[in-house]
Amino acid sequence: MKIINDSNNTEGIYDRKALQKRIRNRVFYDKLANIVFLLSTLFALLVLTILITRIWRQGIGWLSIDFLKGNLSIFPEKAGIYGIIIGSVRLMSVVGPVTILLGVSTAIYLEEYAGKGKIQSFISTTISNLAGVPSVIFGLLGLTVFARLLNLGSSILAGGLTMSLLVLPIVVVASREAIRAVPSFLRDASYAMGASKWTTIRTVILPVALPGILTGSILALSRAIGETAPLVVLGVPTLILAVPTSIMDDFSALPIQIYYWTLDTVLTPEYANLAAATIIVLLVILFLMNSIAIIIRNKFQKRY
Amino acid sequence: MENQRNIDSTDKNIIYDIKDLNLWYGNDQALKNINFKIQENDVTAIIGPSGCGKSTFIKTLNRMIEIIPSVKIEGEILYRGTNIFDKSVGVEELRTRVGMVFQKPNPFPKSIFENVVYGPKIHGIRDKKLLMEIAETSLKSAALWHEVKDRLNDNAYGLSGGQQQRLCIARCLAIQPDVLLMDEPTSALDPIATTRIEELIEELKSSYTIAIVTHSMHQAGRISDKTAFFLSGEVVEIGDTPTIFSNPRDKRTEDYITGRFG
Hints:
heterodimer; A: 304 residues; mainly alpha; 2 domains; 0% strand; B: 262 residues; alpha/beta; Rossmann fold; six-stranded mixed beta sheet; 11 helices; 34% helix; 26% strand
């Protein structure tokens, strides 16, 4: 390393030779850190690749139009997941509106209406803690309150409400952050024009916060569409032959079917392939949803 | 000097009559016993060093200061004879009569047109033709029309800083206020944009009563009829601008104006 060629110069506060050595050491550690962090990143990527290749090999041969359009059957060759896809879609049609409405309203209240006192911080902490509660517990809650107390059974409505509670904190936290990021000078401008709080929220704050809210909502929904445990606890049945037509019907969902097929591979080995094919469908839906979230974020991001 | 300090005895209407105004942020008193009057169609400049309470004061005139939770206010501000702190006065209604322009241009991330008609729209005007008329009149009054008439649907953030500030003034004029409050409206602008805003204020004073906080004494000298000098939350001196600048009564005013501090 020959950057500065006057290492004989010993004037000043530095011993130039020692300094050069220290710099060389630091450059070495910098390169080392670079490699360590790169390997950590690659590890996650490697796991994902292994997972996807394995599933791809097992499942892609079984994936066909008939598989997507057919109904469930105990015979692997005849089995299709049409009813299951519809079940998941209808589940989301409950989870989406309920979660977004409750979540965004909560976020608006906490950010714009509630004072900054002890009650507000208590509610905030509770919501953050709620995000850490295991999903099985939410399943139990759903079983007790929705399935038994409100007598909704293991219907789409019961499942959807349970799932909403589970992902609500995600929407609340994301929306609060989006609302908080709206610069206060925009609020001031609106208030100074004689706008009320709600008018300001509706016409200034929500439009600016929308990309953040939508991104959070879609991430919450993609969490909900892949969640299994609460539905298992709710007692969502394993074999539904009828396609659900209303939200009061019993249903099955993609992750549940994957779970049951995997359990039953001991009896029928081909079920593993069916599970893999279903996983591919679920992953494609997830990737699509996440892509939509990213597109929304980039498209609506406003400059101010 | 033939110019007497006779702000009380004129033919003009009193728009604001501030009586024994005291204001605290928590336990810190920011305004102390403020007493003065603002007259119709006057430009009243509020000057003073940083932290003297001039911004606090102007934000009290449209009660924007109350957004800060810890604020406590005593005293009265009569706006055309009505105490603005009276329970019967709606703060939203007050702000439709008293517009405000802020230090930093703060257009909404919407189109130029949507910015101007924001006020009229939220106050119930739906008619498209009428909104367009309001937009044109307001933009003309704010001396911005000719620069933006062909791109009313463009985002307001595509405008330069000075244009954005004039857009904010147009937005304010669109609610047809009586008073314009300006909180250092040119402090974020370059000299040319500043000159344009000052010329605009000169034009607007025939139709509006204007109170302007400014850091620049030259600006106060150029554009205002009355000047109030604030120091540590008190009004040290208020009077006709030429008198304040040429023959201040108080030593502290003189020191500030001649640049000895601040």
